[in-house]
C-alpha cells in the first residue's frame, strides 16, 4: 500500500512540475540556464533573463555568418582570435541555431515566444539558418593546395567550373570544357588579381568622399537619437501597462472571477502583445547608432579593400573579400565578369556622383 502511495505521489509531483514548466513557457519565461549572451538575474524579486557583456558578440556572430563567408570552424576561430573566448564547433553551431536569440524558447519541438530582449531579428536568424542548411547539405572538400579563386568562378560560355593548373611557378585557370570543346584559354592568376583590384578600386571612395559621407551620417545619427529615445519611452510604458494588466488578470483568475478558458484566452492575447512590444523595444534599443556603425564599417572595408587584396599573402582573407563583395564570377575570354553584392552595388556610381552620398 505504501509503495502504491509513493508511486502516486511521485506521479502527481511530476505532473505538477510539468504543469508549472508549461505555465512558465506560455508566459514566455525561461526556467533553465540563460544561453551565451544572456545572464540569469532577478528583477522586482522575480527570476529574469537579460543580455550580458557577451551579447554584442552573439549579434556579430549572426551578422558575419549570414554573409556566407564563414564556416563553423572559421567562426570558432574568429571568436577566439577576436575575443579570446574558446568555444567548440558544436557550441558555435548551437548558438547559431538557437531561436532564443530572435524571441523564442524551443522546448521539445514547440516554440514559445519569450518576454526577454531579443538580440537578432527574425529575418537575420532565418538567413543564418538558410546558410547553415546550405553549408551542410552537400559538403564538398577540395584536396591539394588552396587557391584564391578555386570554386568561385564559372565559364560564361558553358557554365562549367574553372579549374586550376600550376606550371613553372605560375597558376593558370581555365574551363574544364566538360560539356564540349570551345577553345577555352588559360588565364594566369595575376590577370585575375589585377582585374579584382581594379573592381575594388571602382567602389573605393576618395578621402574627401569618405569625409563628406561620415560627417553627414554623424549629423543624421544625432537627430535619430532623440527620436529613438522618445519611441523607446513610449514602448516601455506600453509594456509596463501590459504587465500590469497581466497581473490583474491573474488576480481575477485566482479570485474565481474568470474561468480557466477565458483566463487562458485573454492571457494569450496579452502575451502576444507583449512579445511584439519586446521585439519593438529590442529593435529600438539596439539601434543606438548601429546603422551608422554598419555604414562606417562598410566604408572602411571598401576604402581598404584594394590594398588588402593586393598586398595580403593570406588566401583565406582574399577569398573572404571576394565572397563578401562579389557574386556570379564568370570567365569570359581573359576577362573576369562579376556582380557586386548589396550594398556594394550602390557604390559603383562614384564616378557619376562626386559627393557619392546619394
Structural account:
The protein is of the alpha+beta class and 358 residues long. It folds into two domains: 19-140, Putative Large Serine Recombinase, Chain B, Domain 2 (Hect, E3 ligase catalytic domain fold, Alpha-Beta Complex), CATH 3.90.1750; 189-358, no CATH class. 54% of the residues lie in helices and 14% in strands. The chain contains ten helices and ten strands. It has helices at 2-26, 55-65, 72-83, 89-97, 122-137, 189-202, 207-254, 260-286, 290-311, 315-325, and strands at 38-43, 46-51, 104-107, 110-113, 154-155, 162-167, 170-175, 187-188, 326-332, 335-340. The strands form four sheets. Strands 5-9-10 form a three-stranded mixed beta sheet. A three-stranded antiparallel beta sheet has the order 6-7-8. Helix 7 crosses helix 9. The longest helix has 48 residues, at 207-254. It starts with a helix and ends in an 18-residue tail after the last strand.
Distance between the ends: 83 Å
Return the structural class.
alpha+beta
Helix content: 40-55%
**Radius of gyration, whole Å:** 27 Å
SS field, number of helical segments: 10
N-to-C order of helices and strands: HEEHHHEEHEEEEHHHHHEE
Strand ordering within the main sheet: 5-9-10
Residues in β-strands, percent: 5-15%
Instruction: Give the total of beta strands.
Output: 10
The number of distinct structural domains comes to 2
| Poorly predicted parts | 1-11, 138-143, 352-358
> Which of globular, elongated, flat, extended, rod-shaped describes the shape?
elongated
Largest sheet: 3 strands, mixed
Mean pLDDT: 82
Secondary-structure topology with pairs:
Blueprint lengths: L1 H25 L11 E6 L2 E6 L3 H11 L6 H12 L5 H9 L6 E4 L2 E4 L8 H16 L16 E2 L6 E6 L2 E6 L11 E2 H14 L4 H48 L5 H27 L3 H22 L3 H11 E7 L2 E6 L18
Parallel strand pairs: 5-9
Antiparallel strand pairs: 1-2, 3-4, 6-7, 7-8, 9-10
Helix pairs in contact: 2-3, 3-4, 6-9, 7-8, 7-9
Amino acid at each position: 500500500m505504501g509503495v502504491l502511495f509513493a508511486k502516486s505521489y511521485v506521479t502527481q509531483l511530476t505532473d505538477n512540475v510539468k504543469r508549472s514548466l508549461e505555465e512558465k513557457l506560455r508566459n514566455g519565461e525561461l526556467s533553465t540556464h540563460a544561453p551565451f549572451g544572456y545572464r540569469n538575474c532577478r528583477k522586482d524579486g522575480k527570476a529574469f533573463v537579460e543580455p550580458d557583456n557577451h551579447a554584442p558578440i552573439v549579434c556579430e556572430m549572426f551578422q558575419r555568418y549570414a554573409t556566407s563567408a564563414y564556416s563553423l570552424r572559421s567562426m570558432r576561430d574568429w571568436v577566439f582570435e577576436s575575443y579570446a573566448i574558446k568555444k567548440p564547433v558544436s557550441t558555435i553551431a548551437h548558438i547559431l541555431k538557437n531561436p532564443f536569440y530572435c524571441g523564442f524558447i524551443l522546448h521539445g519541438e514547440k516554440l514559445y515566444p519569450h518576454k526577454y530582449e531579443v538580440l537578432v531579428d527574425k529575418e537575420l536568424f532565418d538567413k543564418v539558418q538558410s546558410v547553415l542548411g546550405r553549408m551542410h547539405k552537400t559538403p564538398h572538400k577540395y584536396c591539394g593546395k588552396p587557391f584564391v579563386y578555386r570554386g568561385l568562378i564559372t565559364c560564361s560560355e558553358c557554365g562549367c567550373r574553372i579549374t586550376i593548373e600550376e606550371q613553372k611557378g605560375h597558376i593558370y585557370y581555365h574551363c574544364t570544357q566538360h560539356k564540349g570543346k570551345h577553345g577555352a584559354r588559360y588565364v594566369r592568376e595575376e590577370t585575375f588579381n589585377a582585374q579584382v583590384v581594379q573592381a575594388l578600386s571602382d567602389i573605393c571612395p576618395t578621402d574627401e568622399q569618405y569625409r563628406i559621407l561620415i560627417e553627414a551620417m554623424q549629423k543624421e545619427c544625432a537627430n535619430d537619437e532623440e527620436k529613438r529615445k522618445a519611441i523607446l519611452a513610449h514602448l516601455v510604458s506600453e509594456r509596463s501597462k501590459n504587465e500590469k494588466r497581466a497581473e490583474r488578470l491573474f488576480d481575477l483568475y485566482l479570485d474565481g472571477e474568470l474561468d480557466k478558458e477565458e483566463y487562458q484566452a485573454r492571457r494569450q492575447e496579452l502575451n502576444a502583445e507583449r512579445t511584439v512590444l519586446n521585439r519593438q523595444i529590442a529593435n529600438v534599443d539596439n539601434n543606438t547608432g548601429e546603422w551608422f556603425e554598419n555604414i562606417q564599417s562598410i566604408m572602411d572595408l571598401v576604402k581598404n579593400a584594394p590594398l588588402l587584396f593586393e598586398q595580403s599573402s593570406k588566401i583565406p582573407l582574399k577569398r573572404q573579400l571576394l565572397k563578401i563583395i562579389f557574386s556570379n564570377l564568370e570567365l569570359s575570354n581573359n576577362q573576369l565578369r562579376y556582380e557586386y553584392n548589396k550594398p556594394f552595388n550602390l557604390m559603383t556610381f562614384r564616378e557619376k556622383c562626386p559627393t557619392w552620398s546619394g
